[in-house]
Write a structure and sequence with these properties.
By secondary structure, the chain is mainly alpha-helical. The protein has four helices and two strands, in the order H-H-E-E-H-H. A two-stranded antiparallel ribbon has the order 1-2. A hairpin with a 2-residue loop joins strand 1 and strand 2.
Length: 74
């Protein structure tokens, strides 16, 4: 598993992204993809897509977290 700070993994969407990346090898998630994390449905594909759209407005920390998961920004 890609190493992220423990505080990062407390976020269900980021944890779902890390799990997906570990399983599939990338973050090219279909927009309709949903993943269950701790009994909660996470709309992972929509969230990853939105992170790409909002890339210029994300915090440096979030960009680093997603980049650590080999996020494709374009």
């Amino acid at each position: 598993m890609v190493q992220l700070r423990a505080s990062c993994l407390a976020l269900p969407k980021l944890r779902a992204a890390a799990q997906y990346r570990d399983r599939v090898g990338n973050l090219d998630v279909a927009r309709s993809h949903t993943k269950e994390v701790d009994g909660e449905a996470v709309r992972l594909g929509a969230w990853v897509s939105q992170q790409r759209v909002k890339a210029g407005k994300l915090s440096v920390q979030r960009v680093e977290e997603l980049s650590a998961l080999d996020m494709r920004w374009a």
